[in-house]
Structure formats: structure tokens, C-alpha cells
Amino acid sequence: MKPINEVTSIMTPLDRSNVDTDQIISKEFLKRIERTGFGKYLFYHWRFDADGKPKEDFVLNDPRFAGSEIIVARENFGCGSSREHAPWAILDYGFRVVIAPSYADIFYNNCMKNGILPIRLPEEEVESLLEKGKEHPHEIAVSLEEQTITEPDGTVRRFDIDPYWKEMLLNGWDEIALTFKYEDHIRAYEEQHA
């Protein structure tokens, strides 16, 4: 995985609650066996009409947010089925950070395991970010090391993250790579118990 620490980007304000994994990546696009190539299907039925033409009123089709690496949404993001394809699609599209008041547990953990930083903020802080982002493109700076979100006016918002996940994201480790960190201990144990 690619390490994540500092992400400075225009945020994409997805002003929706209860965004479920079928909306993130619809079931008809789950036939791929690799983890890449899902980004073009992210929010597909919200982004495109029945003829495959982009819907002008959907935020991801707004050119002001092109290249954004941070998405901000309302509560219960990632609810629904436990498909790991949802974070794959988010990451493949280019988002590295998701900010919301709450997440479905499995989705939250799947983000961490796939190199996406899901940040929980209080509803009023998310509301403030959404309002600013809808008004005009709003660039924010996320620091995982400092556990902060800094806005252009100097406002600093703090977030919590489990130290285990923080270390994994900062180093770009997945759970297999984390196991290799203890390779010498594992080898010594195996030799002792051979």
C-alpha cells in the first residue's frame, strides 16, 4: 500500500447520508478479480444517466472538484453489504481520505486495510465543511501524523485514530506486511519449537 500522511486537496462535498456500498460500487461491476479499475464505476448510478451520460447535477461531475483526494459526507457512510470493492473504487478514483460523522464498522476497517484514511468528525464540524465546500472549492490539509485537518482560515480540527491503524497507514503496511515486521521473532519461535 502507498503510505499516507499529508493530504492537501480541494474536498468533494457529497452532501448525503447513509451512502451504502451498493451506491458506492453497484453489484453489476463486481465481476473483476483484480483490485484496480473500479474507480470508473464509483457512484455510477448517481454519476450517469441510463444512456451513460454524466449527470450535471452530481458533485463528482463538477469540474471544480476534479482531482480531489478528500471526500466529505454525512453520517453512516459505507453502510450496507461488506463488499471490499467499495474502498477499492474510492481509492482507484483518487480519494485518499473520507470524512464523515460515522461509518459502518466493516467499511471503516476495509478503508484502513486498503490505504484510505476514514476520519470521524462531529456532525456540526462535517456540516461546516460541507457548507463551505458547496459554496466554493474549499482546500483542506489533512495530517495523519498530527491528527489534524487545517482549513485556509487557520481553523484546525482534530480527529482520533487507533494507534494500530495510524502506524499501518503511515508506513503503507497491510496486515501481511505488519507480520513481516516480526519475522525475526517468528523465525526464532519456529526454530525453538521445531
List the helices and strands and how they pair.
Elements: E1 6-14, H1 21-24, H2 44-47, E2 70-73, H3 85-93, E3 97-100, H4 105-113, E4 117-120, H5 123-135, E5 139-143, E6 148-150, E7 156-158, H6 163-171, H7 175-180, H8 183-192
Parallel strand pairs: 1-2, 2-3, 3-4
Antiparallel strand pairs: 1-5, 5-6, 6-7
Task: Describe the 3D structure.
The protein has 194 residues and is an alpha/beta fold. It has one domain (6-192): Aconitase, domain 4 (Alpha-Beta Barrel), CATH 3.20.19. The chain is 33% helix and 16% strand. It has 8 helices and 7 strands, in the order βααβαβαβαβββααα. Strands 4-3-2-1-5-6-7 form a 7-stranded mixed sheet. A hairpin with a 4-residue loop joins β5 and β6. The mean pLDDT is 93.
Number of strands: 7
The fraction of residues in strands falls at 15-25%
- Indicate the low-confidence ranges by residue numbers: none
Helix/strand order = EHHEHEHEHEEEHHH
Under CATH at level 1, the class stands as Alpha Beta
How helical, in percent, are the residues? 25-40%
What characterizes the major β-sheet?
Answer: 7 strands, mixed
Question: Over the alpha carbons, how many angstroms does the gyration radius reach?
Answer: 18 Å
Query: Can you count the helices?
Result: 8
Q: What is the first-to-last residue Cα distance?
A: 33 Å
Which CATH architecture would you pick? Alpha-Beta Barrel
Fourth-level CATH superfamily? Aconitase, domain 4
SSE-based structural type: alpha/beta
For the largest beta sheet, what order do the strands appear in spatially? 4-3-2-1-5-6-7
What kind of oligomer do you see? single chain
Shape: globular
What count of structural domains? Answer: 1
